């Protein structure tokens, strides 16, 4: 069904339309036209195989500039970095199995993949291929890798494929692809001018020079939140307990203990518009840690514990006007009840609760499934989704609270 789209809503947006070699390339012609009609500057980057399906003359007529299909035959000396740096969005339509695999593996063997690797702009990938290829575990693993990195996938539909075959694998319709582009571009600026502080990972409280009290938090959800905030145009600081792959542009500070986390958070919280405490902070720490290694010959140690500061509680008590404060609740029972209690007792604007006993939502999982409660009384239950997708749901809901 065609949906009314406001005219010129892509004005001043630079969109790289990446076209790879499949019969569905003919539908990308329609996508190119529509993006241009909406005011976007569309630069087309193709693989060599794509030109066998739709020729350079067609792209030249419809796009805003010279078609990019080779490193060696381009008016710009370094075409892929220019495209990657200028892009507000890179849209790969259609995406073949090879292009998806090369992008997932970081193998820049043509101008399209090089552009994908050279960009920090949001990326949408629209796969199109035969059913057997789409369902192959290698392809699905590559799709999962891209999704975990924040790439939006517009999934293929069911219908007639090349030849006489039919099934899943058909490129999504141009309407759906253009709508996805509009959504991504709109959200990519939604936090411009805002400062976002995120914490991630489990703290480690030293027992001696070797051992610590820790927990199983991987920090993946916090990292995904920081990436999502960056993609929406925010200035992002991440205070984390463990290093992971992270986009340039996020200001990372690594800490170990609850006390260090508290110190770094309190330095930054006052100036932040949004504070998200995704870190799993240890509630207790040894009263005194041995500076050396405890030796076995000295017998089993006894350890006195004392509470750590409740960072979120303090943030809630000193919250400034207009600031949004988000807590997490990792629970193994009475999920909704416990989360709502923490929402109120810590004076939060939102709490994100997950059941750690679910294998799809537990520690170190790449996926999550959460219940979100806001101070405004909204409740939302997400399906199982990648941690990046959960981050996107959280920010969509948070932005409504501004
Ligand atoms: N939190 C914090 N400082 C602590 C403990 C927790 O800032 N010392 C924050 C966490 O980052 C999280 C929220 O408080 O956003 C809830 O943490 P959780 O461990 O689920 O709750 P607690 O308040 O510690 O209560 P309990 O352990 O009894 O569930």
Q: Your description of this structure?
A:
With 402 residues, the protein is α/β, with parallel strands linked by helices. The chain folds into two domains: 14-187, Flavin prenyltransferase-like (Rossmann fold), CATH 3.40.50.1950; 195-399, Rossmann fold, CATH 3.40.50. The chain is 34% helix and 23% strand. It has 14 helices and 21 strands. It has helices spanning 25-37, 50-53, 56-62, 79-86, 97-105, 111-118, 131-135, 137-148, 174-187, 220-231, 258-269, 311-317, 335-345, 387-399, and strands at residues 14-19, 41-46, 89-95, 123-127, 152-153, 157-160, 166-170, 195-200, 205-206, 212-213, 235-240, 250-254, 274-277, 284-286, 305-307, 324-331, 350-355, 367-368, 370-374, 379-381, 385-386. It has an eight-stranded mixed sheet with strand order 12-11-8-13-16-17-19-20, with helices on both faces. Helix 10 (220-231) crosses helix 14 (387-399). The longest helix has 14 residues, at 174-187. It starts with 13 loop residues before the first strand and ends with a helix. Residues 1-5 have low confidence and may be disordered. The site of cytidine-5'-triphosphate has 14 residues, from helix 12 and strand 16.
